[in-house]
Amino acid sequence: MSILGIIGGSGIYNLEKIGRCKKINIKTSWGEPSDLITELQFNNKQIYFIPRHGKDHSINPSQVNYRANIAAFKEIGVTDLISISAVGSLMNNIKPGSFVIINQYIDKTFKRENTFFDKDLVAHVSMAKPNSESLSKICHEIIRNLNYDFHSNVSYVAIEGPQLSTYMESKNNHDQGFDVVGMTNMPEAKLAREAEIRYQSIGMVTDYDCFTEDLCMTDVQEIILTMNQMKDKASNIIEALINSFDKYTLDSDDILTCLDKSIITDIKKVSEKTKDDLKFIIKRYLDKMSSN
C-alpha cells in the first residue's frame, strides 16, 4: 500500500480544512523531526505532514533536522513524499507566482548531515534521477489540469542560507543554466532515496533571484506576500495529490528496493548499534537478507 507524506512550510496550506487531523510525536535515532507530525484522514487514506521549519517557522534551513524528518516518515510507513518549498527564479521566463516541478539538483550546501550511512554500514545510492517518475507524472497532470502556470524539467540549485545569494553568486548560477534556487531540497532528496522513499519536489516561485543588477533590491515581505497569494493554489494541488498520488506507482519501482544495489558492507559485520539506529531505514533489506 502506498502512503503519502508531505513536507513544506507550515503556513502554505491548512490540512484541517481537507479532513480530520491528529498530531503524532515521534523521536528517531537522529532526534526529533521539525515538529509534531500531522496525520490526516481523508477518503479512507492516511496522509502525514511535517512543517519543515517548525509550526512557527523558527528553524532556519541549515538547522532543519533533515535526517529525523525523513526517518520519521519512514517509521510511520510513508512510501511517497511530496516536498513543497519556496524558490527564487534564475530565468526570465520562470515568473513569480508560477510553480516548478523539479527534475535535477545541484547541491551547494556544506553544513548539513546528508546521509544515514555514516557509521560502519556503507551505502552508495544512485542520485542520477533523484525524483520519482510516477510522482513527477501525476504532479504534471494535476497542475496542468488545474490550469496553473508551471514549468517542468527544472534544475534546482541548493544553497546553504539563511542569507540570500550575492549578485555574483546568483549571476553565476544563472549563467550556468540553473533554473531556480532554494535552501531546503538538499539533503532532503538524498535522504529520501536512502530511505527508499519516492520523492518529488514542487517549487513555489516567489521572486526573481538577483542575477541582474536591477533585481538586487530583494524585499522579503514581497516574497511572503507572493507565497500567501499562492496558498490556495498550493492547497488545491495537495488535495488533488492526496486523491491520486498513487495513480502511476508501481510495486516494481527500483526506488523501493534501491538499497539492494547500494549497500556494500557485509551486514554480518555491522554493529548492533548501527543496525538498531537504522532499523526502520533498512528493515526491508534486513528482512530480505535474513530470509536468504
Radius of gyration from CA coordinates: 19 Å
Report the order of strands and helices. Answer: EEEEHEEHEHEHEHHHH
User: How many strands, which pairing sense, and closed or not: the largest β-sheet?
Assistant: 5 strands, mixed, barrel
Q: How much helix, percentage-wise, in residues?
A: 25-40%
Reading off the top of the CATH hierarchy, the class is best stated as: Alpha Beta
Low-pLDDT runs: none
- Count of distinct structural domains: 1
Widest sheet: strand ordering: 5-8-7-6-9
Which homologous superfamily in CATH is the superfamily?
A: Nucleoside phosphorylase domain
Could you explain how this protein is built, in words?
Helices cover 28% and strands 22% of the residues. The chain has helices spanning 66-75, 133-145, 167-175, 185-194, 220-229, 231-244, 272-277, 283-291, and strands at 4-8, 20-24, 37-42, 45-51, 80-89, 99-107, 150-158, 180-182, 198-208. The protein has one domain: Nucleoside phosphorylase domain (Rossmann fold, 3-Layer(aba) Sandwich). α3 links the parallel β7 and β8 (180-182). The protein is α/β, with parallel strands linked by helices. α2 packs across α6. It has a 5-stranded mixed beta barrel. The protein is globular, with a radius of gyration of 19 Å. It is built from 8 helices and 9 strands.
